[in-house]
Specification:
single chain, about 475 residues, alpha/beta, c-terminal autoproteolytic domain of nucleoporin nup98, Rossmann fold, 2 domains, seven-stranded mixed beta sheet, elongated, metal-binding
Amino acid sequence: MLLTISTTHTPATDLGFLLHKHPDRVQEFAQSYGTARLFYPEASPDRCTVALMLDVDPVRLVRSRGKSSPDFALSQFVNDRPYAASSLLAVAMADVFRTARAGRCTARPELAANGIPLEIVLPALPCRGGPELAHRFFEPLGWDTEATAVPLDEGFPEWGESRYVRLRLRGEMRLADAINHLYVLLPVLDDAKHYWVAPDEVDKLIKAGGSWLAAHPERALITRRYLDRRWTLTRAALSRLAELGDDVEEELEAVPEAEVEELAAAAENTEPQNSEEEPVRVPLAKLRRNAVLATLENLGARTVIDLGCGSGRLLGELLAKPVFTKVAGSDVSAHALTLAARRLRLDRMPDAKRARLEIFQSSLTYTDPRFAGYDAAVLVEVIEHVDPPRLAAVERVVFGTAKPRHVIVTTPNVEHNVRYENLTGLRHPDHRFEWTRAEFAAWCAGVCERYGYRVAFEPVGEDDPEVGPPTQMGVFTVDGDD
């Protein structure tokens, strides 16, 4: 198996810093099923290419199979799977590029945090769905995608095409994001894994895809394939993406009943489905938006700014209500704002509606005069993404400088996490903390004392008598404002 990653960033040899692998060295990494070798075919200031070659030993692959792993039997020896990119390569890549995949680079932190021009080539990639599926998976992530079907035999074109593609990706991307895209999508395109899919695969998927899978138009298909169509795990993963994510399509109930049965019949060890109809659940992300919209209307707000607007779902619902005469959205992520513009169809938005909307990039930790002048500001699932030492700066910017009449803040209630199946740790890999109800109340009280507000609390979602609601909401109003 072979994977190459190239860059023309200047100097291109900085790729070695990002990967924590020196361009002048050939390195080997032992895997339970073979050996991964990493080397640089070219390394100049203008262009640098790293190659990861995985040499699979079929005998070792059989011997390393755990008690819970699938039994490929003789197929280990006679098929072509060891020679085409698959979950074997994804696992090796995660091992070799562990630090780069996490986005850490002490020597070049600014380089790790920003996109660089990248070209990724996979000469042979199993793709159940053909080149068109590769385009559907990679293009929404910002990749210029070339996927060419590999013929069964170039000497006999009448035999048709194989299920393999030659894949070339080009784009300006953070290296960590690029590696995580591949880690998730290689086995998804192959539609197979070489190891048993256990419940901890949900955590792996959320960790690798949490920053991009939530907004992907094919997230339901990607999730089902990644989890080997095990419906219990798929439900858990979609639940965490749709309910626990910050701005996600509601996919939890998106799979039709007939397709569920078809998937269950096709997958081994898939749990039988309950024949009784389950009530349709409204995802927590939707409940949050409903609660915020209702509160804004009850407060009589007419101008609203969404601080940390993400991909713009709340902005769209605000714009749909003419009562909100001016709507603004701000986010520190340029990529999120690009998704927001696409979601809101800014290029086709009617002039009257476009005149009510402003979108701009900014950081909540720095004073920005564009934050001021609104009746209300909302921070929906935002503060938990802020490092605790920087919360004071956010408070100062929002409550001290911008100082709208009302501020609505929602954040997860960590006490409710025990109610989520297969959830270990925090709800999202980017969360810096999650507060109990008492901790959130204490922070709100401090904000009120420092900046002259009063606060009321509202539950969002089912208010569990033991652990409280999944989301807690604080509604701040300037003290003395009726």
